[in-house]
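Is S-adenosylmethionine placement plausible here? Inputs below.
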Amino acid sequence: MSAEAPRLYCLPDADLSYAELLQQRFAMQGVVDLPTSGFCLLLDSEGLSLRWCDEAKLGAVKVDFLSGKAAHRRHYGGAEAVSKAVGVKKGQRPSVIDATAGLGRDAFVLANLGCQVTMFERSPWVAALLEDGLNRAKADPEIGEWVAQRMKLVHANSISDIQQHQLQAEVVYLDPMYPHRKKSAQVKKEMRIFQQLVGADADADKLLQQALQIATRRVVVKRPSSAAPLAGKAAANQLNTKTHRFDIYSLI
Ligand SMILES: C[S@@+](CC[C@H](N)C(=O)[O-])C[C@H]1O[C@@H](n2cnc3c(N)ncnc32)[C@H](O)[C@@H]1O
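Reply from A.M.:
I modeled the complex. Tokens:
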């Protein structure tokens, strides 16, 4: 995991009071020049994005719940595997702890379907991106109200926070980083970049043990299709998609 404090570079049109808030909340270090290597968070009038230089190409990632894939998932996400795995059905909208929130894509699908989702993200880089995306979504007249009500972000290590506050939810959802070795598609490239940024989540086995203690209905783990189950603990139920599977540990 990148042990560096996130570096924040502001373009001239950035809201500087918001930049100050971000710096305090995520212990960021403000920089006056755009870094030419490594990662950097860039703030402009459109929000916060992660920038990096990879194989001499610039890359960027932003959390955007309002357009593109997220908007598509909002309209057509009802039948997505993640919602089936979590157990969303007519009349059943389980409360969810997403203990590995990342960019909040899965959490957004679940919240869109009516689940109350508490998201944990420990990387300050990723948590800042997610919070920024949530802020923009909350200001949107169409989805702002339910995003504010159903999506709560906690910037903390879920393993320690869940223990400390004795949290509970019907479903605990885990999607830890997994070491991808192939370089095939664009998505994999984004995964590789994320691996450099947040590491390989080597403590995911421990997270499963914790999740099994606090979930009241089920624990769902998203894994690449060929990966071994977390903690070597095979799940009684699985849901397979083309690229990954969900291991479902039912508790009732
Ligand atoms: C593969 S990403 C999750 C992607 C997410 N499901 C999505 O839809 O965007 C895994 C994320 O979990 C975070 N993470 C892993 N273990 C964690 C823990 N114990 N507490 C909080 N965050 C954790 C990592 O920092 C990383 O950002």
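Short version: The first strand starts at residue 7 and ends at 10.
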